[in-house]
Amino acid sequence: MLAATTDLLRLIAVPALGWAAWRDVRTRRLPNWLWYPLLVVGLLTLAWDALGHLPVAGVDDRLFLVRVGISLLVVVPLAYGLWWIGGFGGADAKAMMTLAVLFPTYPVFYLASGAYPAVVTDVGVFSMTILTNAVLVGLAYPVYLGVRNGLRGDRGTVMFLGRRTEVSALPAEHGRLFETTEGFTRGGLDLDALRMYLRWRGTTLDALRAAPAAHRDPERVGETFEPTDGAVDADVTAAERPTSAGSTGEGDTAPDADHDDPWAAERFLDEIEGSAYGTTPETLREGLRVVTTRDSVWISPGVPFIVPLFLGLCLALTYGDVLFGLLGALGVV
Q1: What is the rounded CA–CA span in Å between residue 10 and residue 41?
Q2: Exposed/middle/buried for 109, CB within 10 Å: 0-12, 13-18, 19+?
Q3: Which intervals hold domain Prepilin type IV endopeptidase peptidase (predicted)?
Q4: Rounded Cα–Cα distance for residues 68 and 80 (Å)
Q5: Which part of the chain has CATH 1.20.120.1220?
Q6: In 12, 31, 66, 98, which residue has its Cα 20 to 30 A from 268's Cα atom?
């Protein structure tokens, strides 16, 4: 393979982002240190390429500066803005901003079969190609969900947005409850927040389901524990702790109205740091009612955007710009 040295160095992003996507799917947690070496490589390769275009003497030099400017001054703020409004997770935004520094312009790789990427846009900003590819890959996920649910017989209005899961499997799942006791919702209990609550009480989901009435009584909350951040692979799990008072096997006879703070939801949110992923006492109580009264529930999986971002990068490095290719096939461009 023939390529500029800087372009070869940039390929470090492929295994790094692949590992990040794998880890994000498993834990929904990524270490901040991951982005620092990639940013260093990006800044060094960008500075090296810039030296080749100074002084600015021709059209190619000016185009290089414009493309770098678009990547740094448009794509980076766009990623930050999407994180700020809640459209991106923090790791997703950091990944996109890092790629904007690493790949402001199109790399070129010469193989025996030809030059890659094969489809290059007129704009020539490679980070934008990665982003549009990622969006297209992400749009394919609802189609997959719909087909999967249809084949399993789980048909309904949410079959393209969520999947039915056994309640017993929720401690190892990510996403949000997609339903309440009254119907479907997009604002159900975050499963990380559910794990935080269980760890705080020193109990398990099985114990909660076995004795919901006892757990509903805030007076039955004894010693509490570190809730962690709700990650599936937290160092300390509820299964490793002594089970707090409440796992008595009592029947579920007491409604929420019988207590001032049912499930000790307000106390939990007051004692922990942060907001447990935006959870309110009522959202927590409603989620606990759902998981203690049903054997299976709909959840919104919430696949991290870093997965389609990784796939979008791989597509960009090989095929090129998928959207531009589609529009070209349709005769639009």
Answers
A1: 7
A2: middle
A3: 12-142
A4: 17
A5: 2-141+304-329
A6: 31
Return d(Cα 118, Cα 135) in angstroms, integer: 19
In the block, residue with structure tokens 């106390």: 267
Write down the pTM of the prediction: 0.80
Token pair recorded at residue 16:
């790094």
Per the structure block, which two tokens stand in for 105?
Answer: 């312009």
> 191 and 176 in contact (C-beta within 8 Å)?
yes
Burial class of residue 146, CB neighbours in 10 A (0-12, 13-18, 19+): middle
Question: What's the CATH code, domain 2-141+304-329?
Answer: 1.20.120.1220
Residue with tokens 């009435």: 213
Beta bridge partners of 296: 166
Q: What is the pLDDT of residues 254-293, one digit of tens each?
A: 567 678 899 999 999 999 988 898 899 999 999 999 999 9
Residue type, 14: V
Report which of 205, 257, 259, 209 is spatially closest to residue 232, judged by C-alpha positions: 205
Query: Does the bond joining 117 to the residue before it have cis omega, within 30 degrees of 0?
Result: yes
- CA–CA–CA angle 158, 163, 164 (5° rounding): 105
CA dist., res. 306 & res. 27, Å (int): 13
pLDDT digits (tens, 9 = 90+) for 191-240: 999 999 999 999 999 999 999 999 999 999 989 999 999 988 654 444 44
Burial zone of 36 (CB within 10 Å; 0-12 exposed, 13-18 middle, 19+ buried):
exposed
